[in-house]
Design brief:
Blueprint: E1 6-12, E2 35-44, E3 52-60, E4 66-69, H1 82-94, H2 98-107, H3 114-121, E5 142-145, E6 149-155, H4 159-172, E7 186-190, E8 194-197
Antiparallel strand pairs: 1-6, 1-7, 2-3, 3-4, 5-6, 7-8
This protein binds zinc ion (ZN).
Zinc ion binds near residues 27, 29, 60, 62 and 63.
């Protein structure tokens, strides 16, 4: 429970599918669309909720090139899901040190080391990018994971400061935090009644 004098900030996290929900795109080589399903495989992922996702393999019927089709929120370049990457970036932005960021993420069920966090943070442009971020003088928030959001509990005196940080962060993320957000990205609730969305 959130005690009085506290506010909660709810930050929507990107959806991650267990398996591809849509048909694959065109062949990456010849751009034709007559590919044939050629099996599936499991891909281990780093994510707060999933350990493995299903990747579909296709073979182009025209040029016979094989290619993989990944579920939403995952890709071939990383074992982190989009949700995981964003989570590390937000936690980094809201904790006073990298050591505490690792701790918070571990409490949320995410085993990521500082190297991964710093690599993710390098993708943030602007004031909260890697190594330029100083310790905030505000009290560290408490973090909770909901199915589709990160919930951050802060004192209501600090809520405006934290929201400002989050808005700047979301404007500077290269991982498309704002790419078709399903709901308002950041929702603030103060002492259970006043509610506003940004
Ligand atoms: Zn082809």
């Amino acid at each position: 429970m959130i005690s009085s004098g506290m506010a909660t900030i709810r930050i929507s996290l990107p959806r991650v599918d267990v398996a591809p929900a849509q048909a694959p795109g065109p062949c990456p080589d010849c751009w034709r669309t007559d590919s044939i399903r050629w099996g599936t495989r499991g891909k281990p992922v780093r994510d707060p909720f999933l350990q493995t996702v299903v990747v579909h393999r296709f073979r182009c019927a025209s040029c016979h090139v094989f290619f993989s089709h990944y579920p939403e929120g995952t890709d071939e370049h990383s074992d982190q899901t989009d949700r995981m990457r964003l989570l590390t970036q937000i936690v980094w932005c809201l904790t006073p040190s990298i050591r505490q960021a690792v701790e918070v993420l571990r409490e949320l069920g995410c085993q990521v080391g500082r190297t991964t966090i710093l690599k993710n943070v390098e993708q943030i442009k602007g004031p909260y990018g890697a190594y330029t971020y100083g310790s905030p003088s505000l009290k560290r928030p408490d973090f909770f994971l909901a199915a589709d959001a990160l919930v951050v509990a802060v004192s209501d005196e600090d809520v405006a400061n934290w929201c400002e940080r989050l808005i700047v962060l979301s404007e500077n993320l290269s991982t498309e935090i704002a790419d078709e957000p399903p709901t308002p990205l950041i929702t603030v609730e103060i002492e259970g009644d006043a509610e506003s969305a940004m």
